[in-house]
Amino acid sequence: MRRNARVAKEGSKILFPLGVIEEHGPHLPLGSDIFWSKKICELVRDELKKQGQEALIAPGYYWGINHCTGAFPGSFSLKPETMKQVLFEIFENLKAFGFSEVYCFNYHGDAHHVNTIVEAIQRANAELGMRVKLVLEAMDLQLYQWKGTEEFLLVSEPPYPLEWFEDGAMEDGLLDIHGGAYETAVMNDFHPEYVDLELAKTLESSSLSMTDLQKWLIGGEETKALVPQGYAGNPAGYAAVAKHVKEMIALQVTDIAGRIVAHI
């Protein structure tokens, strides 16, 4: 408690991991997204410390929105107005504790979920005078039709070598977006105790075409019929991604920490 009060007075930053409880296929845990967010927060905190900046990690938030996968058992989902209010009250608490600068880390791409986070951030900034930002990679901007200059964003652009994405993990012309090669490789790097790699090796690809993606975005029974095992990707292709996972994460963490320091 004394340390928290001290760093609040010193203007310390809060790193806030967000995610959901959501099915990720038979080989990954329901908490994959929040595990991912929390691990990145830990790594960014450590990198910031190396640069002489102190940051605290807020307790993880995982009661989000699962529009696309909501028909699967294990995918808990709140109404947007409920989620927005809960997040706003969390920001209120952080402000009462003396913290104003908050960086939100979210690794759940559902647009309904992400837009609700942004609405809560915008309200906290407007009504509470806080400086809350959603950390987002530049490659994801087009998903939400943002420019990257929005005041509620901290945009990261790690210098990933293109060849890392061309060595067989992803299938030509198909989308690996949920519980596939990339997510399986990252989760196995972060929490191997929660990943069933032997099962992942046996799973057939359910990577999506652009036409399939439109069905995925409808959500509910449409999504369930499209990918009955719950994953949309190629889990068995994780090994090709795994060769570069540690380097990918290191580049991401270094870039984010550098941008936070530059933003101060």
Describe the structure.
By secondary structure, this protein is of the alpha/beta class. It has a single domain, classed as Rossmann fold (3-Layer(aba) Sandwich), CATH 3.40.50. It is built from eleven helices and five strands. The chain has helices spanning 2-9, 32-50, 80-96, 111-128, 141-144, 181-190, 197-200, 210-218, 220-226, 238-242, 245-263; strands spanning 13-18, 55-57, 101-106, 131-137, 153-156. Helix 5 (141-144) links the parallel strand 4 and strand 5. Helix 2 (32-50) packs across helix 11 (245-263). The model has no long low-confidence stretch (mean pLDDT 94).
Keywords, please?
11 helices, alpha/beta, five-stranded parallel β-sheet, Rossmann fold, 10% strand, 264 residues, globular, 45% helix, 5 strands, single chain
Give a topology summary.
Layout: H1 2-9, E1 13-18, H2 32-50, E2 55-57, H3 80-96, E3 101-106, H4 111-128, E4 131-137, H5 141-144, E5 153-156, H6 181-190, H7 197-200, H8 210-218, H9 220-226, H10 238-242, H11 245-263
Parallel strand pairs: 1-2, 1-3, 3-4, 4-5
Helix pairs in contact: 2-6, 2-11, 3-4, 8-9
How many H/I helical runs?
11
Tell me roughly what share of residues is in helical segments.
40-55%
| Low-confidence runs | none
Q: Overall pLDDT, averaged?
A: 94
Secondary structure: number of strands: 5
As laid out across the biggest beta sheet, the strand order is 2-1-3-4-5
Radius of gyration: 18 Å
- Major sheet description: 5 strands, parallel
Percentage beta strand: 5-15%
CATH fold field value: Rossmann fold
- End-to-end gap: 24 Å
CATH H level: which superfamily?
Answer: Creatininase
Structure classification: alpha/beta
CATH architecture: 3-Layer(aba) Sandwich
Assign an overall shape.
globular
Q: Which H/E pattern describes the elements?
A: HEHEHEHEHEHHHHHH
Structurally, the number of domains stands at 1
CATH class: Alpha Beta
